[in-house]
Amino acid sequence: MSLAGKISGRNLRPFRFGSIRDRLTPIDNKLLNDWWQEVQAKGEEKTLVDALSSGNWPPRELAQVLDSKYPRSLEAALVAGLRNTQSQPYFDDLTEALVRINRDHLVDDTLLDLLRQVPNSDSKLLAIQKLWDRQHPEALPAALVEFEKLPGSHAAARSYPEMSGYASFLARCGDSSALRALQGRWDALPSGIRAAVITRLPEMLAAENHGPIRSDGPSLVHRDEASRETALQLLISALGDASPVIGMVAYGWPKSPRVCDVALSSLHKVEPEVFSFTPKADMTKRDEERSEGLKKWEGKRASKATRKEVEK
C-alpha cells in the first residue's frame, strides 16, 4: 500500500488483475483528491469514522489507522460497519477487528448496540461473550434467546456453525440455566455439537469459579449451586446416546466414537473413582465400562440419599 494509502486507510490504486508487479498501478489521483477534499471538509477523524461505518470500504486498514490515531472512535465505527455492510469479506474483517480490541476498553453501550442492532448471529455471540466477561446482566438472557432461535438438526444445523458457537458458550459459561437450555434442545443438536458440549463440561467444572478458562471461549466461568449437578445429569443422560461422531480422530480418538463414548471419557475426568475409561478399548469393552460406571453411580447416589434421610 502507498504512503497515502497508509495514511488514509484506503487503497488509492485502481485494481488490476495480474501478478503483484502488474497490480502496482499508479495512485488514482481522483481517489486521492476526493479523499483529501473529504478530510478538508470533515476532518481526518470523521472521514475515517464515516468510511469504516459505511461498510463500503475494506475495513482492515481503516480500523488500524483509526485505532492508532483515534482509538475512542473505533468501537462504534466497527459496530456501525457491521450493521451496514453488504459484503461478507468486509463483515469478517470488521468482526475480526472487534475481537482484537482489548475488552477492558470496550464500552457497554457499544456492545449492547452490536447485540441489538446487528442481525448476524455470530456478531451477537461476540457481543454476548464480551458482555459476559464483564458480568453484564443482559449477556446470558440474550444468549438463551438467540440459542432458542437457531434451527436444530432436523433443519440441517450442520450448515449453521453459529449453533456450535452458542452451544459451546452455554456449556463453558457454567451457569445452570445455560446447561438446562442445552438439555432442553439436546435431541435437536447434531451429534458433533453434542460431543463438543460434552468435552467442554469437565473443563468448565474444573476451572476456578469466576476465573479465566481459555482464550477461545468465555474468559470467565460463573458457576452456581446447581451447575455441577446439572452438568452431571447431562453427562449421565448422554451415556445412552449411541449416535456416531465424525471427525474426532483429530482430537486423539483412535476412530470415530459415539456420543456415549465421549460422555464416558468426560465422566471419567469428573468422577474417576466411579467411571473407568480405556482410551483404546473396543466397543465391547467401552460398553462394559459404561454399564459398570452406571451401576457404581446409581449406588453412590442411593447411598447419598440414604445419608440425607438419616441426617434428617
Provide an overview of this structure:
This protein is mostly helical and 312 residues long. The protein folds into two domains: 1-101, no CATH class; 150-312, no CATH class. The chain is built from 16 helices and no strands. It has helices spanning 3-8, 20-23, 29-42, 44-54, 59-69, 74-84, 88-100, 108-117, 121-133, 139-149, 161-173, 176-184, 191-206, 227-238, 259-270, 283-311.
Defining key terms:
312 residues; mainly alpha; 16 helices
> How many extended strands?
0
Shape: elongated
Q: Please identify the oligomeric state.
A: single chain
Largest sheet: none
Fold blueprint:
Blueprint: H1 3-8, H2 20-23, H3 29-42, H4 44-54, H5 59-69, H6 74-84, H7 88-100, H8 108-117, H9 121-133, H10 139-149, H11 161-173, H12 176-184, H13 191-206, H14 227-238, H15 259-270, H16 283-311
Helix pairs in contact: 3-4, 4-5, 4-6, 5-7, 6-7, 6-8, 8-9, 9-10, 9-11, 10-11, 11-12, 11-13, 12-14, 13-15, 14-15
Give a quick precis of the structure:
This protein has helices at 3-8, 20-23, 29-42, 44-54, 59-69, 74-84, 88-100, 108-117, 121-133, 139-149, 161-173, 176-184, 191-206, 227-238, 259-270, 283-311. By secondary structure, the protein is mainly α.
